[in-house]
UniProtKB/TrEMBL annotation:
Protein's UniProt name: Non-homologous end-joining DNA ligase
Keywords: Ligase
One Pfam family this sequence matches: LigD_Prim-Pol
Gene3D superfamilies: DNA primase, PRIM domain
Keyword DNA damage appears in the UniProt entry: no
Classification via PANTHER family: BIFUNCTIONAL NON-HOMOLOGOUS END JOINING PROTEIN LIGD (PTHR42705)
EC nos: 6.5.1.1
Length: 302
């Protein structure tokens, strides 16, 4: 019988708690749910008011993985949803995780959380910029850190402050708080950053996704700023052999990264880090930290 648990006044059926989800560590679904309950205070602000897409992996990373934007079948009526902009279906909606009960309901489905750079009340108007640094083997996160430091200085020259987190996979994400800006403009600026980085670091950076260009280099993926795209939410678990988390890191950790293992952050690492640092991405919620996007240079391509 599936146990019924009350979470923040909502009754939830939490199933298969002993099922092993991350085989390399023996991590069970019950431990996964406990993790999300533990990080509620830091993950919910990153999910709040942002339509979420799910990468579901109910049988672990070695099983079937499927990506969904629509509310899954059986979504409770009390789980918030928001219209899906620019959808061919005018009635299309996405889930919005606003509270602990919704978080635990979604975590029970065994998901990665992926969110837009904009909020539900202002579709396609971004309040943050993201750059996804993805290494092409034999490059690793070590090379990503070198590129991140370069991009941090480039962004600072434009009056923008970058914050770093691991992707939870092989790479690194940079997040920049912005004054509300149309996603199209943010995308164009992010692309210029990637193109410039390749011009300045041609042996280390590539701005195009083509696989034959990427071995040994870091792909600066600027495309996730498009209104339709999403990025792994801070503190989400990833569908990996080990229970890796997309977790914030300090710039000191980025500067000192000397091996790929240095910035592999697992589920059990997060609580101690929160005690030491709090949420390193908290400035993303500070209106005073949001900066305007610099104007495009004359003749810049959109």
């Amino acid at each position: 019988m599936t146990p019924i648990t009350e979470v923040a006044g909502r009754r939830l059926a939490l199933s298969n708690l002993d099922k092993v989800i991350h085989p390399a560590s023996g991590t069970t679904k019950g431990e996964l749910l406990h993790y999300y309950a533990t990080v509620e205070a830091v993950i919910l602000p990153h999910l709040h008011d942002r339509p979420v897409s799910f990468l579901r992996y109910p049988d672990g990373p070695g099983g079937q993985l499927f990506f969904t934007k629509n509310p899954p079948p059986g979504t409770p009526a009390w789980v918030n949803t928001a219209p899906m902009p620019r959808s061919e279906d005018p009635g299309a909606r996405q889930v919005v995780i606003q509270d602990l009960a919704s978080l635990m309901w979604a975590a029970n489905l065994v998901v990665e959380f992926h969110t837009h750079q904009w909020r539900a009340a202002s579709p396609a108007v971004a309040d943050r910029l993201v750059l996804d640094l993805d290494p092409g083997p034999p490059a690793t996160i070590v090379e990503c850190c070198r590129v991140a430091l370069h991009l941090r200085e480039r962004l600072a020259a434009d009056g923008l402050t970058a914050y770093a987190k691991t992707s939870g996979s092989k790479g690194l994400h940079l997040l920049v708080p912005l004054e509300p800006t149309p996603s199209e403009q943010v995308s164009a600026y992010a692309r210029r950053l990637a193109v410039d980085a390749e011009a300045e670091l041609p042996r280390l950076v590539v701005h195009r996704m083509a696989k034959h260009l990427r071995p040994g280099k870091v792909f600066v993926d600027h495309s996730q700023n498009a209104a339709a795209k999403t990025t792994a939410t801070p503190y989400t678990l990833r569908a990996r052999r080990l229970p890796a988390v997309s977790a914030p890191v300090t710039w000191e950790e980025v500067e000192s990264c000397a091996s790929p293992e240095t910035l592999v952050l697992l589920m059990n690492d997060i609580a101690p880090r929160l005690e030491d640092y709090g949420d390193l991405l908290a400035p993303l919620f500070d209106p005073a930290a949001a900066a305007p996007l610099p104007a495009a240079p004359p003749g810049a391509a959109p």
